[in-house]
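Homework help board

Subject: predicted structure for assignment chain

Our instructor gave us this sequence and asked us to write out the predicted structure in C-alpha cell form, then describe one feature. I got the C-alpha cells but I'm not sure how to describe them. Can anyone check?
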Amino acid sequence: MTTDNATTPGTGHVRPEVDVRALTGLLDGEYAEIRDLVRTNLVAHAAVLDEADELGIDAFRERVREIVVELAATGQTGMGFPGEYGGGGDIGASVAAFETLAFGDLSVLVKVGVQFGLFGGAILQLGTRRHHEAHLADLITGRLMGCFAMTESGHGSNVQALGTVARYDPAAQEFVITTEGDRARKDYIGNAARHAELAVVFAQLEVGRKSVGVHAFLVPIRSGGEVVPGVRIEDDGRKMGLNGVDNGRIRFDGVRVPREALLNRFADVTADGVYESAIDNPDRRFFTMLGTLVQGRVCVGGAGINAAKVALTIATKYAVRRRQFQAAPEAEEQLLLDYGLHQRRLLPLLARTYALHFAQDVVRTQLHEAFSGTGDDPHARRLLESRAAGTKALGTWHATRVIQECREACGGAGYLTVNRFAALRSDSDVFTTFEGDNHVLLQLVAKGLLTHYASEFEDLDQLGMVRHVTGLAVETVLEKTSAHKLLERVRDLLPGGDEGDQEAGLLDPEYQIAMLRYREEHMLAGAARRLQRGIDQKRDPGAVFSQVQDHVIGVARAHVERLVLEAFTDKVRTLPEGGNKAALSLLRDLSALSVIESDRAWFMEHGRLTVQRSKAITREVNELCRKVRPLAVDLVDAWGIPPEMLRAPDLVG
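My C-alpha cell output:
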C-alpha cells in the first residue's frame, strides 16, 4: 500500500493511496465468497502447474479429470445448477467461479467448462424435467462425464448446416443418428477421446422424410469405459496447448436412441411421428435454442481476461525487480518499470484489463438476470447475446496480446517453461476461436446494430440482414444514432486555441465517451450506406455483404470498445472519494486515451483530431503511465491471484 504523501517520480504529483484489500473486494464484488473458495482450491491443486510439463499426455489427462471431480466435491463447479439436484442455483456465481479458475491451469478450466458448462448446460437449458432428473445430479458430481458434440470437421460457426442426421423411426419410436460423410464427423470434441460416457449431439432432425432443422439429442458413447456399438471415436492427439483435455472425433453409424433422448424444451416428436414446437419459425426456433447456450461465451471472455491478469502480474512484478543499464555513470542500474518504454508496453494493457474486468461484470449480471427470471424478455436476450459476443471477442484477443507482450517484456526468462508464459500462451490461444470465432461473433454484434434489434433479429442470416437494412431508408438507420448531435458535443469539449491548451478536456469522461460514440455511429451509418448502395446497383446481396465485411467488423469493434469504456466510467462514478477511486480514474483515462490514440488515424481522417491534439493525447498517455507506475504492483496485487499460481520463480521470486 502506498503512502498518502508519496509522489510520482519525476512529476511532483501526489499519488493516490491504494487500499489493496478494499480494491480486491470491489473487484470480487458480490461473488467474493465463491471466488475465495476457488482460490483455496487452486492452491490445493497448485502442483498441476508442474504436472502439466512433467506427465505424459495420458497421465496428465487422468490427473486433470481427477482434479475436476475433486473440485466438483467442493461445490464450486455446480453453482449454476438448481439446488434440487445438488447445485447452487446461482448462474452469476457459476460464471464468477469459472473466471477465477482461469488463474490456474487452463486444461482444468476447459475440462470444467466442457463438463459443467457445455454438457451440463445443454441438458439444463435444452432439456426438460425428465432429462434433469435422469442426469443432473450425477453430472454435477462428476459421476457422469459427458461431452458437447456440436462442431464438425466441415462446419463450426455455421451450426445450421451441420451434416449429422437424426431420423425418426416411428415403428421403433427411436431416433437413428448417422454421420453422413467425413465432413459430418464431430470433431475437436472435449472429453470425447477418453472420458465422456454421454454426448449431447447436435444433428439435423428428419421426421417423415422432412428436415425440421438442428436439434440436440442425448447419445451414449461409452458404457463401462468401452465405446458402445455403432460409435467410432478417434483421438485428436496433441494440440498446441490444453493437452489435459481429451479432444476427439466421433462418428455415428446408425446409432439408435429412444424418442425421449431428444432435448425437448423447444420442440418434440410424438410417438407416432408428429413434430411439435411452440415456435413456428424454424430460424427463430434455432436461434432461441442457441441463445440459451450464451453462458459459454460469457465464461470464455471472463477466462481470457483473467489469464491476461496472470501474465500482467508476472511481468509487472518482474519489472520492479529486474534492473538494466545506468542512468548516470555512478548510479545504480534502473528498474525496468522506470523506463518510459516499459511503462508504455505494460501499463496501458493493465488499464485495459481493468476496463474489460468491469465490462465483464456487466455482461455477467445481464446473463444472471436473463436466466434467473428477473429480466427475462426477448429484447434483453438479444442485447445479452450481442454484448456477450463482443466482450468475448475483445477479451480473448486482449489475452493473446497481453500474454505475448508480457512474455517479451520478461526477456529470456519469460521464455522458460518454468515461468508460466509457455503454458499461458499455448493454452489460451484457442480462446479466440472456441465458443465462436471472434470475427464471426463481431458480425453478430454488427447485425444487431444494423437491424437495431428488429423483431426479426433471430430470423436474419447475413443475406437477410442485408435485405432488411437496405429495405429501410438509410436515414432511418441514422435516426437511430445521435452522431450529428455528438459532433457538436465533441466540439464543445475540445477547447480551441494554440497547442499549449491541447491537453485541456482530454481527461473529461464525457469527451472520451463522445469520441468513441461518434466513431461508432459514423461507421454504422457508413456501413448502412454501403449496403444500400450495393443493392441499389442490383448486385447480389451475398457479394454486397462480403465486400463490406471490413466495415461491419469495424462497427462492431467500435461499439464494444465504447461499451467497455462506459462500464469502466460507470463503475468509477459509483465509488466514494478516496485513493482507490483516484487510482481507477487514472486507469480509466489511460485506457480511454490509449484506445483513441490507437485509432487516431481514423479520428484525424474524419476531422475529430487535429495534429496538435493527436500529439497531446500521446503526451497525456505518457503522463498517465508515469502516474500509474508507482501504483502498478498494488493494482496487480488487487486481482488476488494466489502466489502459487504465478509459478515464475525466476521472475517474481
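Reply (TA_rk): Your C-alpha cells look well-formed. For the description, you could write something like this. The CA atoms of residues 323 and 335 lie 4 Å apart. That's the kind of observation they're looking for.
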